[in-house]
Amino acid sequence: MFVVPRPPSNEAERLKILFSCGILDTEKDERFDRITRLSAQFYDADAAFIGFVDDRTQWMKSVHGGGIAPWADRDQTICQIVIASGKPLVIGDLQSDPRLQGHPALPRLPFRFYAGVPLMTEDRVAVASLCVLKHAPQPADEFELSPLQDLGAIAMDELDLWRRNQDLRRLADTDSLTGLANRRAFDAALDRAWRRFQRTRRPLSLLLVDLDRFKLLNDCWGHQAGDEALRRCAPILSEAGSGSDDLAARYGGEEFALILPDADGAQALETAGRVRSLLASARIPHPHGIDDLVTVSIGIATLGPELDPGLDPGLGPEIGPEIGLDSAGSPETLIARADAALYRAKQQGRDRSVVYTAA
């Protein structure tokens, strides 16, 4: 009888490594497609895939053949066994193997044979699996596993190269003044977060944060004082985010952005509250600010479940109801909504957070 396996003992480290790769929800890549194509051809398989497994889902970076969904809930997969054990798994007949009896995905699978190997880091952490499947069953003891393991090792080499390129890209995508992600990095991260939202239908929130009366600060005390204010605000934005995939960026000029994947409206409001609380504690001087300190206005837009109208986050005098899960057509739509909310915060006197509403 099938029992959902417990996560591996190094699950926290595994997820940290996986998220640091920055590979989830990225576009197709021939380097990985080549490996699944070769795997299917070598084994005369009907399908082959490379799937990365996070805390909730298995996302397919590469698929060759039909019958494989682009993603699946982790507890609905067979590969979770490979990730949990860190060992190869060969099943001659998925329908008759007693270990899988009662597995919820079996009635939907068009395959009978499965073979998968974990993609392991040098520290023996399994972040993904390389698998081949066949419509017809095959004796498990007749399967030659070593070529699939070799192809899995090649896939890990490609992932390691991917990670190194990501590190180099991060250097190029860093704002030199604040140390945050720059606008190019923001655009790429929002695009990934958008694809993740479309895949998982879990919430996605965006905060646009603007320093109030920044021009007056520059005019009165000079651009060096303005630069210093921006530098001191940057770690506040980074600290305010709490998710592993949250991204703080300098959006442009005196405006910052926070991308919050998987954060609903209430969590986005809490994050905005942390930004303003941390900023108040930092006590950055401003010649014409409230109490002679730098303040910010924040515009919030969320795609996801509606905010509880009874919530009182205490983040400002104007907190509108959250939009519901909708079919907004692009990441630019989310930016436009957060920008509209930010404009409203400025109109209403600054030093406050405003949530986008259709009205």
Describe what you observe in this structure.
This protein has 359 residues and is of the alpha+beta class. The protein has two domains: 161 residues, Beta-Lactamase, CATH 3.30.450.40; 181 residues, Alpha-Beta Plaits (2-Layer Sandwich), CATH 3.30.70. It contains nine helices and eleven strands. The strands form two sheets. Strands 3-2-1-6-5-4 form a six-stranded antiparallel β-sheet, with helices on both faces. A five-stranded mixed β-sheet has the order 8-9-7-10-11, sandwiched between helices. A hairpin with a 5-residue loop joins strand 2 and strand 3. Helix 2 runs antiparallel to helix 4 and helix 6 packs antiparallel against helix 7. The longest helix is centred in the middle third of the chain and has 27 residues. The termini are far apart.
In short:
The chain has 359 residues and is of the alpha+beta class. 38% of the residues lie in helices and 20% in strands.
